[in-house]
Design a protein that fits this description.
This protein has 474 residues and is an alpha/beta fold. The chain is 40% helix and 12% strand. The protein is built from 14 helices and eleven strands. The protein is globular, with a radius of gyration of 24 Å. The protein starts with 11 loop residues before the first helix and ends with a helix. The structure holds pyridoxal-5'-phosphate.
Length: 474
C-alpha cells in the first residue's frame, strides 16, 4: 500500500485533539456557573458508564461527546470558584494548556536519556519552587504525584537515614529482625502520612501521637516523648493541618529535635501550608522549616496545576538516592547523561509533570503567587469573620491561613442533636449545587470545614457561600 494521507495513522489526531480542546474549553468557560456537585448514586453512575469492552473500536471525536454526556452527573466542578471542600486547587489556564501539551508530547520523565527536556524542566521547576518558598538552594527535590507520595519520599529518606544510624541499610537489607524505627508526630498527623508508614513497613499503628492543643504540637510533650527513646527517630511535623490550617511551631520543633542526641530526621508535611511562604505576610508561619530534613507538598492544591502533581525536597541527596536507587544493566546512564528523575522517587517510567508546573509558574511569576495566596487568605478571613459575627454559627478555631472550621450551633440543642444537624447541613450544602464544603470532627464536635485555595475564587463567590450557609441557620 502506498502511503497516503488517509492511511497516515496520525492524521486522526487533528480532529480528536481539536474536539478535546473545544470540549475542555467549553467546560472551563462554564465552571463558574454550573452546579458544583449533584446528588448521584453509584447505581446511576454504573448504569451510565458500565458496559462490556467494545469488540471493535473507532477513534472518532464522537467518543469524547459520548463519555462526557454519560458521565456528566458525576463530574464535580472542583476546579470552579465555589468549591470549598477538600483543599483542592483549580488548574490555572496556562497549567491546563501545559498539561495538554504534556499528553501530546508523551515524554517518559524517568531516565534522563528518555527525555533530557523533561528532566531539565523538572530541575528548573524544583529550583523555582525553592526560590518561591525561600528554601535552601542546596536541597534536592523531586516531582511526585501528590503530597502522599511527597510524604513517602521524605519518610523513605528518613527511614534510610535512621537505619544507617542503627548500622543497617533499610533499602538493601529490609527491616526484618532490625531494631524498630520510631516515628513521632502529633495527633493531627495527616492520614496520608499514616498510610505511608504502613507502606514503608514502619507501621500505621506505631505512630507515637503527641498532644496538639489547638492543632499545634506541644513541644514539651514532644521533648518528653523523644526523651523516652534511646535511639534515633523520625519526627513528622505538620505545617497546615487539614481541619483548621494550624501550623506546628517549626522553629521550636526543630530545636527540640536537635536536642535529641541520637539524632532525628525531621519531615514536614506542608501539603498546602508551604504556600504561606510565597507571601511576606504569612511566611512567619513556616519559620524554622529550613532546619527540616525533608518537606512534602502538593502542586495540585495551591500551585493550581491539574492532577496529579506534588513535590518533595530532601536536604541530603545521597540519602534520597539510597532510598530509591534502581540498578539494572540496561539502565546504566552512560556517558553524557544528566539528572535521572527516577532515581529520586518510587516510580521509574513516569508522566512529565514538570511542564504544567513550568507553565503555571511562568504564567503567574513570584508576584502572581504572592497575590493569589493573599487573596485566598483574605477570602478565608472574610468568611471566618462573618461566621464569628453571625448568631447560631460558631467558629471552632482561628483561621490560621486558608481553612475555616465552624459549625451550626443554635441555642438549646445537645451535642448529639448538634452533630446530626451539622452532618445533615453539610449534605444539603453539598447537593445544593451552589457550594461544596466538607465535614470533620474538631475538638470533639461535628464540624464543617471550608478551604480557600483556588485562584479563581472571588469575594462574590465567598458571598454565595455565606448565603448558602446562612439559609440553613433555621
Ligand atoms: C492533601 C494533603 C495530603 C495528601 O495529599 P494528596 O495530594 O491527596 O496525596 C497530605 N497532607 C496534607 C496536610 C494535605 O492537606
Amino acid at each position: 500500500m502506498t502511503h497516503t494521507q488517509a492511511a497516515d495513522p496520525f492524521a486522526i489526531a487533528g480532529a480528536l485533539l481539536a474536539h478535546a480542546a473545544q470540549l475542555g474549553q467549553a467546560h472551563i468557560a462554564g465552571l463558574a456557573e454550573q452546579a458544583v456537585a449533584t446528588a448521584v448514586t453509584p447505581q446511576e453512575m454504573a448504569a451510565r458508564l458500565d458496559e462490556p469492552l467494545p469488540e471493535t473500536g473507532s477513534a472518532t471525536p464522537a467518543l469524547l461527546d459520548e463519555w462526557l454526556e454519560r458521565a456528566a452527573p458525576g463530574i464535580v466542578a472542583s476546579p470552579g470558584p465555589r468549591y470549598f471542600g477538600f483543599v483542592n486547587g483549580g488548574a490555572l489556564p496556562a497549567a491546563v494548556a501545559g498539561d495538554w501539551l504534556t499528553a501530546a508530547l508523551d515524554q517518559n520523565a524517568g531516565p534522563w536519556l528518555s527525555s533530557p527536556a523533561a528532566a531539565q524542566t523538572e530541575l528548573t521547576v524544583l529550583r523555582w519552587l525553592r526560590e518561591l518558598f525561600g528554601l535552601p538552594p542546596a536541597w534536592t527535590g523531586t516531582l511526585t504525584s501528590g503530597a502522599t507520595m511527597s510524604n513517602l519520599v521524605g519518610l523513605a529518606s528518613g527511614r534510610q537515614w535512621v537505619g544507617r544510624q542503627l548500622g543497617f541499610d533499610p533499602a538493601v537489607d529490609g527491616l526484618g529482625g532490625r531494631p524498630a524505627i520510631p516515628v513521632v508526630s502529633s495527633t493531627e498527623i495527616h492520614a496520608s502520612a499514616v498510610k505511608c508508614l504502613g507502606t514503608l513497613g514502619l507501621g500505621r499503628g506505631r505512630v507515637r501521637n503527641v498532644h496538639a492543643p489547638g492543632g499545634m504540637i506541644d513541644p514539651d510533650a514532644l521533648a518528653a516523648e523523644l526523651a523516652q527513646l534511646d535511639g534515633p527517630a523520625i519526627v513528622i511535623a505538620n505545617a497546615g493541618d487539614v481541619n483548621t490550617g494550624a501550623f506546628d511551631d517549626l522553629s521550636t520543633v526543630s530545636e527540640v529535635c536537635a536536642g535529641h542526641q541520637p539524632g532525628v530526621w525531621l519531615h514536614v508535611d506542608a501539603a498546602f501550608g508551604l504556600f504561606a511562604a510565597a507571601s511576606p505576610r504569612h511566611r512567619h508561619l513556616l519559620r524554622g522549616i529550613e532546619r527540616a530534613d525533608s518537606v512534602g507538598a502538593d502542586a495540585h492544591k495551591w500551585l493550581n496545576v491539574p492532577y496529579d502533581s506534588g513535590f518533595a525536597f530532601v536536604r541530603d541527596a545521597a540519602v534520597l538516592r539510597q532510598a530509591f536507587a534502581a540498578g539494572g544493566a540496561y539502565l546504566e546512564p552512560g556517558p553524557g547523561a544528566g539528572w535521572d528523575p527516577m532515581s529520586h522517587l518510587p516510580e521509574m517510567s513516569r508522566r512529565f509533570r514538570g511542564l504544567a508546573a513550568w507553565c503555571a509558574l511562568k504564567s503567574l511569576g513570584r508576584a502572581g503567587y504572592q497575590d493569589m495566596v493573599e487573596r485566598c487568605v483574605e477570602n478565608a478571613q472574610s468568611f471566618a469573620d462573618w461566621v464569628e459575627s453571625t448568631a447560631g454559627l460558631q467558629l471552632l478555631a482561628p483561621a490560621h491561613l486558608n481553612i475555616v472550621c465552624f459549625r451550626y450551633q443554635p441555642e438549646g440543642l445537645d451535642e448529639s442533636t448538634l452533630a446530626t444537624l451539622n452532618r445533615a447541613n453539610i449534605r444539603t450544602l453539598q447537593t445544593s449545587g451552589e457550594v461544596v464544603v466538607t465535614g470533620t470532627t474538631w475538638d470533639g464536635h461535628a464540624a464543617i470545614r471550608a478551604a480557600f485555595d483556588n485562584w479563581a475564587t472571588r469575594p462574590a463567590d465567598v458571598d454565595v457561600l455565606k448565603h448558602a450557609v446562612d439559609r440553613l441557620r433555621g
